[in-house]
Sequence to fold (252 residues):
Amino acid sequence: MSALAISGIVCLVLIVGALGGALLRRLLPDRHLDQHAKDIVRLGAGLLATIVGLVLGLLISSAKGNFDTQRDEVRRLTASAIMLDKTLEEYGPETRPTRAELRMAVADFIDQQWGLAKAPSPSRPYLPTATAQDMYRRVVGLAPATDPQRFYKAQAMEIANSMLQQRLVLYEQAGGRMPTLLVVILAAWLFVLFMSFSLFSPLNPTALGAVAIIALSAAAAFFLIFEMFHPFSGLMQIDSEPLKRALRALPP
Fold:
């Protein structure tokens, strides 16, 4: 389910909670809605609002950290691809097929990571693409004849291994998600909180509009969390332009 759909459901649940509080206000006898009950509900709502605010803040911070980490890994992978190409170029003209394989491997990565091709399931172990494997075998199979070539091969192997590690990190982080139980509990807390809004106050048009705006704001927090946990799809995507620029710089 998309982040937009989940946040829409949460918004609807909160509005239903406010309407449920208004209905409960009509059904309860007056003695259940006296000043003492009002004070207890307000205190409880304040405590619940504090807990929800803290949990949502921590989740947004965690999702933002996940987003930033994957964005930084993409940048490092871009730099590694450019460095590997330059190292192979310094090795000699015989590496041109390897550099062409590198270009195809980067193109395959862009297609896979940004959803143009079917991404591997996080439940299965990571398997590199056939193009990436061929490129790695070509680097391993280089037979240096001079000391400079031996140096550049060692550098190329180090960079290729680093790229593999960066790709593995991105693959593992792609499985990150917000636990379903946590979403349900947060939505339940907010449902109770919105019920308290209308339990002692009538919902006139102004109050109903305010409740709708507050519900949209709370649902937007869920939207941000889910979007940042999936930074290669949806509306808040990591920019693929740096990798595309690197791809244009590689030889065809």
Summary: Helices lie at 3-27, 35-91, 96-113, 130-140, 147-173, 180-199, 205-229, 241-249. The chain has a mean pLDDT of 85. The CA atoms of residues 41 and 142 lie 74 Å apart. The chain has one domain: 3-249.
